[in-house]
Design brief:
328 residues, alpha/beta, UDP-N-acetylmuramoyl-L-alanine:D-glutamate ligase, 10-stranded mixed sheet, 4-stranded mixed sheet, 10 helices, 18 strands
């Protein structure tokens, strides 16, 4: 019996850094949008190139394991060198791999393009990540108190829908971090999973895409009607909100030097869920989620500085932020 089984993507990430990029702003009808720009028709030297593993499924699996939860990762990984590296790292982090190794698809791969303002754009090759099928999985190993779903596409999303039904039949809690791609599909497309979800993780832009623009309390009320019992909405440098349908909680972010943003959302969600599992307390979950995310934001890579449990507790003891709470 695992505390958490994460279901999601696994990638090798290449972080490409150059001083030749810049952010440009383009006016659109609805809003202004930022673009990372490079000179056309030239060769651009990289001043740093880093390779690390990533993907919402493995990022959160490592986070849960470091925070003291018995964890497994369920996903599809290619039978190639990149896949071997991912599986090796999971083993080193005490995460059981209970997924499939694809012989037809290469492992997922991402290229993270950084700008001088430390915004980033990610080029994603999904590869095996879109091909998870439960018929290839030993379901006898898929036993847990919690499932954590991250964004999946194609056959893999159908697998998440099947796991939602499996969870309902077997009393397994579901946490769901849908991501921007799935949110773009609309609430009807996500309805089967949302209806079975206990904790839903979104950022503000994703919440607006799912239920329309509005203030945080209004969006929370609309989101609860879709099924989730607890909802969190992160809002960048401002902080994070959570709701249990009766009360609205807010935890402010700290002023830190942001080095790289990849994996911050995964770090928050895994920190919140780990805190909630251990303490059954939304306030503690918010504090741990923000601490975990800020640690990741302060360094390169999505897993590099994920907190371990004792370190997380020491970070929280140093903090003096107060969680604000009001009726929803």
């Amino acid at each position: 019996m695992y505390d958490v089984i994460t279901v999601g993507s696994a990638t090798v990430d290449a972080f490409a850094y150059t001083e030749r990029s810049k952010v440009i702003k383009v006016e659109k009808r609805a809003k202004e949008q930022d673009f990372i720009a490079y000179p056309s028709g030239t060769k651009i030297l990289l001043n740093r190139l880093l390779f690390m593993t990533g993907g919402g499924g493995t990022n959160t699996a490592v986070a849960f394991s470091r925070l003291g939860l018995k964890t497994a990762f369920l996903g599809s990984i290619g039978s190639d060198g990149h896949g071997n590296a991912i599986v090796k790292e999971l083993k080193n982090e005490k995460v059981d791999f209970i997924g499939q190794r694809s012989k037809k698809e290469a492992s997922g791969f991402s290229i993270i393009l950084d700008s001088i303002e430390h915004d980033r754009t990610i080029l994603v090759f999904l590869g095996a990540n879109k091909s998870l099928q439960l018929s290839d999985i030993n379901m006898g190993k898929v036993t847990a108190k919690w499932f954590y779903f991250s964004s999946m596409v194609g056959k893999s999303y159908k697998a998440i829908e099947e796991l939602s039904r499996h969870a309902k039949k077997n009393g397994i809690n579901i946490a769901f971090n849908s991501g921007s791609y799935l949110v773009g599909k609309g609430k009807k497309y996500l309805s089967r999973v949302l209806f079975s979800t206990r904790i839903l993780f979104l950022n503000k832009e994703e919440a607006e895409a799912l239920v329309g623009n509005g203030d945080i309390p209004g969006m929370m009320q609309k989101l609860h009607k879709l099924g989730p019992e607890i909802i969190t909405i992160t809002n960048g440098r401002e902080g994070a909100y959570a709701s249990d349908g009766k009360s609205l909680y807010f935890a402010p972010a700290h002023k830190i030097k942001v080095v790289e943003t990849t994996g911050a959302g995964d770090a928050f969600a895994s920190g919140f869920l780990a805190g909630f599992i251990k303490k059954n307390d939304i306030k503690f979950g918010l504090k741990l989620g923000i601490a975990n995310a800020e640690s990741v934001l302060s360094y390169y890579g999505a897993k590099n500085r994920l907190l371990k449990w004792n370190k997380a507790l020491s970070v929280l003891k140093r903090g003096n932020e107060k969680i604000k709470m009001k009726a929803l």
